Amino acid sequence: MDNTALEAFIGDVRSRWGPLTSELAAACQNAMETLLRASPEEGWLAALHQDAPASAELHRDPDHGFMLLAHTEQAGLYRSPHDHGRSWVLYGIQRGEIEMGTYARVETDAGEIGLVKRNTTLVRTGEAQLYLPGDIHDTRCASDTALLFRFTERDLRAEDRQHHRLTRYVERGGLWTTEPTSA
Predict the structure, then answer these.
(1) For residue 79, how many other CB atoms are within 10 A of its CB?
(2) In this structure, which CATH number among 2.40.50.100, 3.40.50.720, 3.40.1350.10, 2.60.120.10 belongs to the domain 5-170?
């Protein structure tokens, strides 16, 4: 029986899994780029193309905790600047284009937190983008639709809801900050 590209990706990552190193990050990025070239004839990918789910869990590793999710996004969908806490994340674009901006967190002498935008990258079909723990980024769907894969070191919902380790930024007065917007 032939493995699907999804099964091959999971097996490759499982065989290399360990603490975050440059080698692990590169190996996972290479595995993701191979997964992005999967034949749309494979049943799991054909279903994603047909159903276009906003979010679908493709794999949750029972031993190591890493996850692979698929997201279908529509033109202009914007996710404001955020980090992934202590997790590293790999985005791969299977179809379409996603604009990803990166930011640096800065603090004024008065102790106010803000963001400075570093750059914007247009990530296209077949490309993957890595974010390390603490990296801050935003995303915007730059094509009519996009199918992206998001590989996470751990369950980010648990990190956010249970441990409150993710930071989302809000815009106030034209600046991104951690402070809530005033009513």
Answers:
(1) 15
(2) 2.60.120.10
